[in-house]
């Protein structure tokens, strides 16, 4: 999953980014509001972590702009503003959650998982498809009752494809979910990860639509 972190404090930003990268997320970090707006106009992210006190444009303005154009991407406000009026305003303007600093990074990760589940209409933390069970809060995967060890990147691919069964993700879309800005990506990286996943979860778990992308069986719709 790809996360955009909008946080002007470099130390807080670095701490959040490193923790979430260790959890398997691709995290990009920006420190001013205008840059956040520009990036959101041109790139896909699965979730936005949004500080309110950003230079050049406030987090609240960014949130209002997102919702005004119909962008339903999950947004979690992370801020030092703890007044009830600020919390109410943030939620009323369209934030999915509101977390006051200082906070536990474990709690932040749990709130991210919850927001991502809600974004695809799921309340259950587990996904089960044809004997494959994915527990999103523990990141455990089992195949017909047997635990399977996946690397962080392999798990990220499995979760991305199973969040919306039948949705086709292109190689580029999968790369977006695996890597942040500045990461080196070999041209065959996705294919190597897919091959390894099939070795562990079965050759028919992930399907290939040649020239288009990858999917797990389901409704068969393509992501826009």
Automatic annotation (TrEMBL):
Residues 2-116 form the Response regulatory domain. The keyword DNA-binding applies. Keywords: DNA-binding, Phosphoprotein, Transcription, Transcription regulation, Two-component regulatory system. GO terms for molecular function: phosphorelay response regulator activity; transcription cis-regulatory region binding. GO terms for cellular component: cytosol; protein-DNA complex. GO terms for biological process: regulation of DNA-templated transcription. This is Response regulator transcription factor. Pfam families: Response_reg, Trans_reg_C. Residues 124-218 bind DNA. Residues 124-218 form the OmpR/PhoB-type domain. It comes from Noviherbaspirillum pedocola. The keyword Cell membrane does not apply. InterPro entries: CheY-like_superfamily, OmpR/PhoB-type_DNA-bd, Sig_transdc_resp-reg_receiver, WalR-like, WH-like_DNA-bd_sf. The modification 4-aspartylphosphate is found at residue 51.
